[in-house]
Write a structure and sequence with these properties.
The protein is α/β, with parallel strands linked by helices and 305 residues long. The protein has nine helices and nine strands. The chain has two domains: 164 residues, 3-Layer(aba) Sandwich (Rossmann fold), CATH 3.40.50; 104 residues, K homology (KH) domain (GMP Synthetase, Chain A, domain 3). α4 links the parallel β5 and β6. α6 packs antiparallel against α8. It starts with 8 loop residues before the first strand and ends in an 11-residue tail after the last helix.
């Protein structure tokens, strides 16, 4: 970075919102590569994910957070806590909403959380590529009554429409100061985290109903050799019947999950992968705090500077 500290802006931004509004798609768009897994199913994001977005005169450290919803399990409680606690750790908040969703009690709850956090906030109205343009102004008016936003910007994280404008508006409101991380620093998560997430993304894609939400992925071993990485991973289910569904007839579903996940992992790591998947039953893992700690389901914390 060549800009003087007085000309440079750097700070933390948290992307919050209800489930399935496109937070992870937006994060990937801002970063310029796939970091967060994406699915049409709600509650895809379980952990907070830090990503560094560098621009010529600014560095924006972005938290992608789980969707704020009414939790049904201990795991979901911790997911929501991670999102809510992120509000106290950042300089700026981006509340993302789906233009196709009606304003409801969940939105009013998020507005109260923003008021309590007392942080400046922008509103991003996402998925404008999938809605008639005349719908935008009424949606802006509806949300403007909930909270005093610094700016409201309609965007499409999928197509990139207005993302440059959103980035400019966010970085312009960051505090003045030097970069918080080296220019080549992208995220605080290890490679094992992303490998587990890419496997889980394929479970979300290839299974239905409750099953994706009652599964977790554990990396048992991650061995780097000269031109290859050998990975053993366990997929956890809560009931024996779910194990059978994950394996499928003659092992076909597990093979399909593994093949698709291996391709994604190879693209992410840039090396050849040998992936071995195993399915195990761990009853009520979503209610077990120790297990949730072990698999990284922890509350968001501001990184040490």
């Amino acid at each position: 970075m060549t800009a003087e500290a007085s000309e440079f802006r750097a700070g933390f931004v948290s992307i919050v919102g209800r489930p399935n509004v496109g937070k992870s798609t937006l994060l990937n768009r801002l970063v310029g590569r796939k970091l967060a897994i994406v699915s049409e199913k709600p509650q895809t994001t379980r952990n907070r994910l830090l990503a560094v977005v560098n621009r010529p005169h600014a560095q924006m450290v972005v938290f992608d957070t789980p969707g704020i919803h009414r939790p049904e399990h201990r795991m979901n409680e911790r997911m929501v806590q991670a999102a809510v606690r992120s509000l106290d750790l950042v300089d700026l908040v981006l509340w993302l909403v789906d233009i196709n969703e009606s304003l409801g009690p969940g939105d009013r709850h998020i507005a109260k959380l923003l008021l309590r956090a007392d942080r400046p906030a922008l509103l991003g109205i996402n998925k404008i590529d999938s809605a008639p343009k005349p719908l935008i102004l009424p949606k802006i008016d509806a949300y403007r009554r909930l909270f005093e936003f610094r700016e409201i910007i309609p965007v499409s994280a999928r197509t990139g429409e207005n993302i440059a404008l959103l980035t400019e508006s966010l970085t312009a409101r960051l505090p003045e100061g030097p970069p918080l991380y080296p220019e080549d620093f992208l995220t605080d998560k290890p490679e094992r985290f992303f490998v587990a997430e890419l496997i889980r993304e394929q479970i979300l894609s290839q299974t239905h109903q409750e099953l994706p939400y009652s599964t977790a992925v554990i990396i048992d071993s991650f061995k780097e050799e000269r031109n290859i990485v050998r990975i053993h991973a366990s997929i956890l289910a809560e009931r024996p019947g779910q194990k059978g569904i994950l394996i499928g007839k003659n092992g076909d579903r597990l093979k399909g999950i593994g093949t698709a996940a291996r391709r994604e992992i190879e693209n992410f790591l840039g090396v050849k992968i040998v992936l071995h998947l195993f399915v195990k039953v761990r009853e009520q893992w979503r209610e077990n705090n120790k297990f949730l700690d072990d698999v990284g389901m922890i509350d968001v914390a501001k990184p040490e500077e």
